[in-house]
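Structure first, sequence second, as always.
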């Protein structure tokens, strides 16, 4: 099936774009199908410029906190960091029932979770494309049907997009604390940190995976399940 990394995004396909605003966020998005997340149902989402999809309330905070969050905010993040789309890049999002897209998603999920054959009926796709500051890009595809909910997080390397260039010492990249990657359900029990999250190893996230495809992470989150994690590869730079 088509790689979800190649899912096109632009306004001609029905995508909406976030405003050019540092620490900005989308409008409140009424989900066509409620999103079931660790047993809780959410009907409103926000795509936040700093790398977070949150439920019920926007998240404008740019300095990441460790999971579980003390304020109980439920959200998903491939890379929570200080993004400034005024300086460059775009943030797209859409809800989709496109048969071709849903067919590709269904094949991927069934491949990764063969014990739970899956047919997607709706998907929410958000893309941070060449955004300034960190220069990272991820497609978060969240397909679901009435009983199963999945998250696909995809991170890809974009060379030449970090401005200013990263310093030679990688640990915190210009003094910013290591970013979380994963999700927080809103309580103190149900949360997930992708290995390396909140540590200096976050710089290698594009080389790790739990489905044997570097940079791709797939989870079932209505009743949490995740494939085994591949061992990380080492890298001594700060490019994402």
């Amino acid at each position: 099936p088509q790689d979800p990394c190649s899912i096109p995004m632009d306004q001609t396909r029905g995508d909406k774009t976030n405003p050019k605003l540092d620490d900005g966020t989308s409008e409140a998005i009424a989900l066509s199908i409620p999103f079931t997340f660790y047993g809780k149902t959410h009907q409103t989402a926000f795509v936040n410029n700093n790398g977070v999809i949150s439920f019920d309330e926007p998240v404008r905070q740019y300095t990441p906190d460790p999971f579980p969050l003390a304020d109980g905010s439920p959200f998903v993040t491939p890379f929570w960091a200080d993004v400034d789309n005024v300086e460059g890049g775009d943030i797209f999002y859409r809800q989709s029932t496109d048969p071709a897209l849903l067919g590709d998603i269904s094949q991927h999920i069934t491949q990764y979770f063969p014990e739970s054959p899956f047919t997607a009926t709706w998907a929410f796709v958000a893309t941070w494309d060449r955004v300034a500051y960190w220069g990272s890009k991820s497609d978060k595809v969240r397909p679901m049907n009435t009983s199963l909910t999945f998250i696909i997080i995809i991170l890809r390397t974009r060379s030449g997009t970090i401005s200013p260039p990263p310093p030679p010492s990688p640990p915190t990249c210009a003094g910013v604390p290591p970013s979380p990657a994963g999700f927080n359900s809103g309580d103190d029990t149900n949360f997930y940190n992708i290995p390396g999250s909140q540590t200096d190893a976050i710089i290698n996230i594009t080389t790790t995976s739990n489905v044997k495809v570097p940079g791709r992470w797939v989870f079932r989150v209505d009743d949490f399940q995740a494939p085994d994690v591949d061992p990380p590869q080492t890298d001594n730079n700060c490019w994402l």
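Margin note: The longest helix spans residues 99-112.
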